[in-house]
Amino acid sequence: MSKENALTNWFKAVKSRAETSTGTYMSFFDHLEALRWHLIRSAIAILVFTILSFNYFDFVFDRIIMGPKRPDFWTYRMMCLAGQYFHLGRGYCMQEIKFNIINTELAGQFTLQINSSLILGIVLGFPYLLFEVWQFIKPALSSAERKAANGVVFYASLLFGLGVLFGYYIIAPYSIRFLAGFQVSGLISNQITIDSYLSSVVTLTLCTGIVFELPMLALILSKLGLLSPQFMRSSRRYAIIVMLIVAAIVTPTPDIQTMLIVTLPLLLLYEISIVVSSRVEKKTWHSAYNDPSC
Description:
The chain is mainly α and 294 residues long. It has helices at residues 3-16, 28-55, 57-65, 74-85, 108-137, 143-148, 152-181, 194-211, 214-223, 229-234, 236-250, 256-290; strands at 100-102, 191-193.
């Protein structure tokens, strides 16, 4: 079965196969109504997590948002222990992160609480959002396709969670540590607005969570016949260059140590993606071999 046929069959299945689990068929407006309720339930879940974050904002602000600025943050403590263990000196122990956070808008602090609670609500509600998306797509899939995609919500949520944790505990602290201590001149003191600080932490954290979805992207593209393990293996050297560029952009620090810390997980994800694509290809060829119409 060619890649063009696989892609065409997939689009036909999504477009025309409207049979539900009860054997009935849904019209276009029925699909819109079903989508509306999936979105409503997702919004309710995100709203619940947002309200919880809003009610416990003291903890959210002190321990989560301002965590990378605190000298006793987990990452800085681990860096200090590693420096002592390998006898690298006291330079790896954080005593103080020298920059002040200020607010320059009348409603800035209230907006901070709303935005922070909403962002945390979206992050915590992301697995349920994926679940609702899967429930909407599942009726358009055959039983074999459903079986092949079994566990996709769990693995996508797991990868996103690992990426968020990696971005929050590794990339964000390293970036804040460097940028807070960087000075062009001693005459300039760092007065950082709370919007700039929050935007930096959120961007680094969420972007890493999205990047960690690389194996899921490889799974989808391989299912569509748009990606093969042979292509990924032959393009590995170019992929490494791209990863180094991405690491340099994501971590605005000049030291090679930080770049390697970011690049190594990307390389691991790339290798996992090759394995995922290989398994999809084997299953595809096995199905095609047993299908007399191909």
